[in-house]
Amino acid sequence: MFVPKFRQNKMQKEIKKNTQVNSGAPEFKYETHVHTNETSACAFDTAADMVRAFAGAGYQGIIVTDHFFNGNTTVPSHLPWERRVELFCQGYENAKAEGDKCGLQVFFGWEYGYDHTDLLTYGLDKKFLLEHREVLSWGVEEYSRQVHLHGGFITHAHPFREAFYINKVRLFPDFVDAVEVINASHTNPAYNAKALKYAKEHNLLYMSGSDSHAVNQIFGGGVAFDRKMESIEDLINTVKSNSGYRLLGK
After folding, report:
1. Containing structural domain, residue 83
2. pTM of the predicted structure, to 2 decimals
3. Which end of the chain is more exposed for a tag (fewer CB within 10 A), N or C?
């Protein structure tokens, strides 16, 4: 699907119309979709390297969203649950330690997989994972219910991406809060165009992310807020308010 330039410009206007930031105010950039090679098998660089790269690129913070146990993880499945969770959190914890040194805020999240449908999950913590070892037995509906019951937020990442490992597009508009209408890693603008149309049709919030797997993959995605976010909960609530921020990337 080819997307003409004029239609791409129309997409940007549509996105801008649905997110608001105070004109002239200083901006604080947050990347919402980052992987580390401690935990994501497809990532190339360490958490510390990723943190330094984003700090150098002018970001205020990042959300580490390594692939969960039902995705492309480095964590062996035969280990006891507690050990699996410890290893899974290593990428985030290493990133947080480096972020504290260099002044980059680092928040915890993950990319939950359902047959190559990816759901970025924010607002939960290691304690949630330790207490819910049955999480892998949940379907998408129950997963969504539990995430929201515990105060979490779900963004459907790159819903229309095409790749050899994706055999079907699966959409769950009733079970997510937002759609990644800008995945800045995409070279085919049709994927984001379809995501925007889908989000608009179902009145879902818009999000943007770079889906970075390496220090040379900072594609300029994320969200620019008009103030520093105090926590991941603050970030979630600001996005839900649909004001005080704009999406980055194309």
Report:
1. 26-248
2. 0.91
3. N
